[in-house]
Amino acid sequence: MRYLIVGNGAAGNAAAGAIRRRDTRGQVTILSDEPYPAYYRPLIPSLIHDGAGREALFRDELTTPPEVEVRLGTRVTAIDVPGKTAILEGNERIAYDRLLIATGASPARPFIPGLEGDGAFTLRRIDDAKGIAASASGAKSATVIGGGRIGTKAALALRHVGLSVAIVELLPRLVPLQFDETASAIFEAALQGEGIALYLGRNVREIAREGTRVIAALLDNGQRLPADFIVVAVGVTPNVALARKAGIGLNRGILTDSHLETSIPGIYAAGDCAETREVVTGEPVVSGIWTNAVTMGGCAGENMAGGDRTYVGAFGILNALELAGIPAISVGVVNPPPGQGYEVEAIRRGGSYRKLVFRDHSLVGALFVGEVERAGVYTTLIREHADVAAFREAMVAGRLTYAPFLKELPLTTTAYAS
Which among 270, 258, 263, 265 has a CA at the least distance from the CA of 244? Predict the structure, then answer.
């Protein structure tokens, strides 16, 4: 059996490992358009200010499974579905029996006059971080467009190398998908304490230049923020061009069934490019979350090698991050819409914050800031749609332990309660 994986990230490597566990003799090949071995993408911002971070970036968990061929710097231009071959640049062809598309996502770039050109960066790949670090050397100031996870991490990294930094976020809070107003307020104070200027509820209407050189970001309210370069961190777009060209079914991402097989038999999709179901709401979702990509890749790989594993769904929100020394974890529905039966229990004590969201006797969302202990078990309860009525009071008070309920939950619980 010939297994071909397009993409050398979390999903691709998890798939290769799952294939190799079921099929020790099949030929497994991973193709990557980057020149680097597999790396832990969430740590990329650390490369801006910490050369030692490179060791953690290429961490042991991403070691390629045994007897897997990895071809770096190899770009797939098309998939010949009838011929079951992938066509590479230079017109080389690689045959497959099972194919996984794990092409990830690319940074979104909003249309802002003056943005295109030198001195405007996104932050998704190693070479992006290298370019930002080079521009930071000798620079005085930078503006980050986007106050989400990547934008805030990039801003802190640039402060660590001595730059004056501003974050401009269109929505009125930081990390808007994962945080609410209270969580944002805690981190706003922390980032401002680091010397980062925040412009929330504002938009960049133009990038001012002198010739080709960036000199400022102009806001929609007329403010002018001096900047020697710009970092754009406003989300990502699934890489679906290869699937579209091959005639594979698409919506926002590559459409998959419960086995992560696409509309074309023998071709699977996983990771940031795949569209599946949100585990809490059941709605279609394209997830850019590392842990989702790993789980998807493992499931797809197992099924490619003859397994019959059902993918239970992706978390639309499942993030752990640390900013300015403050840890935070958000999972599930953390900003529930009004009038749909959600009940919210929230407690703030200084720099610590706990928010639990319930619906129909189930926990459907959790947000922890400062104190994140036992977050794994809360995540499990959400994933399993467990009836938590008997434990609700203890959960709200922060007294929940594993012992009272692990025996009552499905066996899969123990895979997540860590």
Answer: 263
User: Which CATH number, 3.40.50.300, 3.50.50.60, 3.40.50.1820, 2.10.70.10, labels domain 120-232?
Assistant: 3.50.50.60
Residue 378 and residue 366 in contact, taking contact as beta carbons nearer than 8 Å: yes
Q: How far apart are CA 151 and CA 155, in angstroms?
A: 6
Residue from 288, 287, 243 nearest 124 by CA:
288
Pull the structure tokens for residue 338: 């009004």
Q: Please give the single-letter amino acid code of residue 75.
A: R
> Average pLDDT in the 102-119 region?
96
Could you tell me which of 209, 296, 258 has the C-alpha nearest to residue 9?
A: 296
**Residue closest to 197 by CA, chosen among 237, 222, 235, 227:** 227
Tell which residue, 402, 415, 205, 405, has the closest CA to residue 294. Answer: 415
pTM of this structure = 0.91
CATH of 2-106+236-304, one of 3.50.50.60, 3.40.50.300, 3.30.565.10, 3.40.120.10: 3.50.50.60
Give residue 252's pLDDT.
95
Which token pair is 142?
């930078």
Structure tokens at 331: 């999972």
pLDDT tens profile 56-95: 677 655 567 778 999 999 999 999 999 999 999 999 999 9
- CA-to-CA distance for 356 and 347, rounded, in angstroms? 9
CA 368 – CA 365 distance, rounded (Å): 10
